[in-house]
Design brief:
37 strands; 721 residues; 26% helix; alpha/beta; 8-stranded parallel beta barrel
Length: 721
């Protein structure tokens, strides 16, 4: 089972390699789901590819966002350079980008990002059949669901086991986008889930902020047993120390070595096992959303009984009873109760007297361990990642000495080099080397990235074997093997980009449709004369809940519902994130696809860029925008209204499956702009109703006649970054 590690820059990259990562996912500047990370320039990326390949490590390029046609095509030159250098795989969210990559670079592996919300074996199998080699499953799947997916598909599976969790299904979170135009599906999430909210019942807290995920030996063993190919660690924006320690921890677990977990000493906003055991509680930390460190005790007067060791140089943070940070410091003096002199350290269980603390402090957290960070720094400095090689040495009187070194690259290709001594070997006049001594000397690989095992020595025992000769052969052979190993990944690509050919839109005869959530809305739509009426469905099809998906519905809100639909003509809902012509064409290849409702993250200009593919295009012109689709019920009381500090309000609704759906309270309304929309190449205009009354539904429908109402465009006007 491979370990897939994060790298947000070169320093984190080196830390991941040295700690034992098998595969590393990295972004290039300007692209990917972590555009806020430092990421890599093209030259840095190519340097990293070579460095990784010398050590048997694979590199995956993260392009896991939705894109425009022009952005996809603009990627070609960078993709070509990385492909030719030996890039191992690309991680994507956008079906259009996937098809563009496979058309232009057919033999590169493409992985489906967790942003694709693949949650069942049918969706996973579809991706395999169209050319994906691996899929990163939704974090919301339990062990039993992962097991079922694995048993019913042959595509490689990758599962997140540590790091930050999104409270919403990845790819189905739009809150940052709809509030301020910073789209998570474009790699610029502003993390509104980490903000404080107030409920309509008067409670305040971080109700959308999950704890981080951290699986242990038990969970890794179970994933290994069911045959999961790769485990994924989150953390492209975490520190190099965090990356090194976390990768090292899972390296030990995968290799069967139980070791103490120390990741929580480096970053801690609370931890859970996520959804691994199907738990619906214990995932949220409503008290605080950021790294507080480890709780070490409560203040009583000026004293604290610590439950963690404390050492000079450690960092502590002071927290109020409302869990607000009031300050912090690096420990420069430790006074233990009952001791006359200051101490260098205090053991867990000791009572420490604090001399200067901010007013209102209730809790103390240790957010920096000097001992641990110093140890990790030494580990990063001195650790090496080697690739195992084998060899054959031959030395006989009257012949030139021969050293052959062999290895495999990470794609299974055999690599070998042969080096000969300059002179033939003469008979030794004194004692010659033994085969064991020759093996030992050749095995001294020094600063190379190789570790030799299984060296076969064919030595007649009579030839004079100078140590300098062995060193020269070893040095020349190892350097040649390194060069040949790195060059084995090189490949050529066409100079000519292959683009999609499509026609620009023409003005169409537009018709209206509605999505309804109850019978009253349906009656109002029928009364108004709407002929195309959809029933609101579930955005996600989990492996254990496939029977809950209505396959008779003409509206597909997830890939499973589209693939298995019983209708001859099916419409694709907007949460499938179709934003370009390439994706429109690709999803149109699925039998029955008739209409695609475009993403409401697109503004009018971006909508006009999408060409004609034979698939009809729809656009939602009215509706409460869904900001999140959350696996768990967020509140015990069920439905509630949340308000953020900026005054925005959101309705949380519990659906028929027990999931939470978070809607922006103020609906999007484009009806006053119908004349502009009529020139955008749209076939179908969709009105989506959630909890509107029959009267409200009628009023909205009647406004279609006058093209009036309160214009509320959200991203239709400003677009997203």
């Amino acid at each position: 089972m491979n370990i897939v590690a994060p790298a947000g820059n070169m320093e984190r990259f080196y830390a991941a390699v040295k700690a034992g990562a098998d595969e590393i996912y990295m972004g290039i500047k300007g692209f990917g789901a972590r555009r806020n990370a430092e990421n890599f320039t093209l030259s840095e990326y190519m340097e990293a590819i070579d460095y990784a390949h010398e050590r048997g490590v694979k590199i995956f390029l993260t392009l896991n966002t939705v894109m425009r046609d022009r952005e996809i095509e603009a990627l070609y030159e960078n993709l070509k350079a990385l492909y030719e250098r030996g890039l191992d795989a690309v991680i994507v969210q956008d079906l259009g980008l996937f098809r563009f990559i496979k058309t232009n670079f057919p033999d590169i592996d493409v992985h489906g990002s967790t942003q694709m919300t693949v949650s069942n074996h049918v969706e996973a199998d579809y991706l395999k059949n169209i050319g994906f080699s691996r899929v990163v499953l939704s974090r919301e799947l339990s062990l039993e669901e992962i097991r079922s997916v694995k048993e019913n598909t042959e595509i490689e599976l990758e599962v997140f086991v540590s790091g930050a969790l999104c409270i919403s299904y990845s790819g189905n979170c739009y809150l940052s986008s709809f509030i301020g135009g910073r789209s998570g599906n474009r790699g610029l999430c502003a993390q509104p889930c980490r903000k404080k909210y107030e409920t309509s019942q008067g409670s305040r807290g971080y109700f959308l902020s999950p704890k981080d995920q951290l699986m242990g030996q038990k969970e890794i063993k179970k994933l290994k047993e069911i045959g999961v190919e790769s485990i994924k660690l989150e953390g492209r924006m975490k520190s190099p120390h965090y990356v090194f320690e976390t990768v090292g921890y899972y390296r030990g677990l995968v290799d069967g070595i139980d070791r103490n977990e120390r990741t929580s000493d480096l970053f801690n906003r609370g931890y859970s096992k996520g959804h691994f055991y199907g738990d619906r509680e214990g995932i949220i930390n409503s008290k605080y959303p950021s790294d507080f460190g480890k709780f070490i005790g409560r203040i009583e007067g000026r004293e604290i009984r610590i439950n963690e060791d404390l050492t000079l140089g450690d960092g502590v943070s002071y927290v109020s009873k409302e869990y607000e940070k009031l300050g912090g410091e690096y420990v420069s003096r430790i006074r233990v109760k009952g001791e006359a002199e200051n101490q260098k350290s205090a053991r867990a269980g000791s009572t420490v007297v604090l001399e200067k603390i901010p007013q209102g402090v209730k809790y103390v957290y240790k957010n920096y361990s000097k001992y641990l960070n110093d140890e990790i720094s030494r580990g990063i400095k001195h650790s090496k990642k080697n690739i195992m090689i084998s060899g054959i040495f031959s030395g006989k009187v009257g012949e030139r000495a021969i050293l052959k070194l062999m290895c495999k690259n990470n794609r299974g290709k055999n690599i070998s080099v042969v080096k000969y001594s300059d002179q033939v070997l003469e008979k030794a006049t004194k004692r010659s080397m033994t085969p064991e001594e020759i093996e030992s000397r050749i095995g001294e690989m020094g600063e190379t990235t190789f570790c030799i095992e299984g060296l076969k020595v064919e030595f007649d025992g009579e030839a004079f074997m100078p140590l300098s000769l062995i060193k020269t052969l070893r040095r020349e052979a190892s350097e040649s093997l390194r060069e040949k190993l790195v060059s084995s990944y090189r490949r050529g690509a066409s100079e000519n980009i292959k683009k999609i050919n499509y026609n620009r839109f023409s003005k169409k005869d537009i018709y209206f449709s509605v999505i309804v959530s109850n019978p009253h809305q349906r009656e109002a739509a029928l009364k108004f004369g709407i002929k195309k009426i959809y029933e609101k469905g579930l955005d996600v099809a989990k492996e254990s809940q496939l029977r809950a998906i209505d396959l008779e519905s003409r509206l597909a809100s997830n890939l499973y519902q589209l693939l298995e639909n019983k209708n001859r003509a099916v419409s694709v809902n907007w949460n499938m994130n179709i934003t370009n012509t390439y994706a429109l064409e690709e999803i149109g290849k699925i039998p029955g696809t008739d209409t695609v409702i475009l993403s409401p993250e697109l503004n009018l200009d971006r909508i006009k860029e999408i060409g004609e593919t034979g698939i009809k295009k729809g656009l939602m012109i009215y509706g409460r925008l869904k900001g999140m689709f959350v696996e768990i019920p967020l509140f015990k009381d069920g439905e509630t209204i949340l308000k953020n500090d900026q005054g925005d309000e959101f309705e949380v609704i519990i659906n028929s499956n027990g999931n939470s759906e978070l809607y922006l309270k103020s609906p999007m309304n484009l009806i006053p702009k119908l004349d502009e929309i009529s020139d955008a190449g749209i076939d179908e205009l969709v009105l989506s109703f959630t909890n509107e009354s029959a009267e409200e539904t009628e009023n909205i429908l009647n406004s279609l006649k006058t093209k009036t109402g309160e214009y509320n465009p959200y991203n239709f006007q400003r677009g997203v970054y």
